[in-house]
Amino acid sequence: MWRYLLQKLVLTVPTVLAVVTFVFLAIRLVPGDPAVIMAGDFADAETLEQLRHEWGLDKPLPVQFGVFMTNLAQGDLGDSIRSRQPVTVELGRRLMVTLKLALASIVVTMILGLTAGIASAVKPYTTLDYFSTVFSLVGVSMPIFWSGLLLIIFFALKLDWLPTGGIGSWQHYVLPAVSLGLFSAGVVARQTRSAMLESLGQDYVRTARSKGLRPRSVIMKHAFKMALIPIVTITGLQFGRMLAGAILTETVFNLPGLGSYLVTAIAQRDYPVIQGIVMLFALTFTLVNLLTDLIYPLINPQLSHR
């Protein structure tokens, strides 16, 4: 197990470095000069040149990349062009907001997705199954920003139950978490239904029923347990989509997290912040996939011997 974990961790390093290299090059291909954006359209050439020299943007691209990788090896992500504060400090302030949103969204996804998927598989081709199918399609098809706006209009403006945005208490995370969770709940519900239908048709489930076990025990202890591996896999993949969805959700609900900060950084061509956030997202997604791989042997111990 430890050897497998070490191999996965070693493979994480080139994956994250490849992502960071791609972002480093891609963001510099986007039209727009950070010096012009920060100094304004009417800044003189001397001021622009001074800003580019201060940020190291007047050096050749390979030199800039070498300086960036050297600083990265020392744990230094550089300073934000806009705020002039260390990127690690800027990200640290916003990380907890995005982390709370992602965890709350995962809870919403699991509750709605698993409930709809299991109920749909236990009662196939019934009204409950058709309702679950419609719910899944709506969740998958509806854009995050659109579901967020609908939730704000209904629950915040019409009913006045929850705040429209910002942070301050747990109520501020309810609507963003539901909006982001709905996006993945539909996918998890469809995967759960498919995996449960396959498990419920297996011989060991029929054997359990023939022994006179209670239906709930057959479903949860036998069928659901064997259906968990594809469900865990799709849930791990959905976490990556949640990180991307957090960019829209935080913008709609005015949450000061990493997603909304990334949008601002892209608009202002704040290269160090963009690179830091993308690297953090890539590292988080890779670690979640690693955690998913480690959960497999816990569900089915036979996989640990392969």
Could you explain the architecture of this structure?
By secondary structure, this protein is mainly α. Helices cover 77% and strands 0% of the residues. It contains 12 helices and no strands. It is globular and about 85 Å long. The model has no long low-confidence stretch (mean pLDDT 85).
- Let me know the largest β-sheet: none
Low-confidence stretches: none
Gross morphology = globular
Span of the ends, CA to CA: 11 Å
Helix content estimate? over 70%
Average pLDDT, all residues: 85
- The oligomeric status of these chains comes to single chain
Quick overview of this protein structure:
The protein has 306 residues and is mainly α.
Features of the shown structure:
306 residues; mainly alpha; 12 helices; 0% strand
Helix/strand layout:
Blueprint: H1 2-29, H2 34-39, H3 45-55, H4 61-73, H5 87-122, H6 127-141, H7 144-158, H8 174-200, H9 203-210, H10 215-252, H11 258-267, H12 271-299
Helix pairs in contact: 1-12, 5-6, 5-8, 5-10, 5-12, 6-8, 7-8, 7-10, 8-10, 9-10, 10-11, 10-12, 11-12
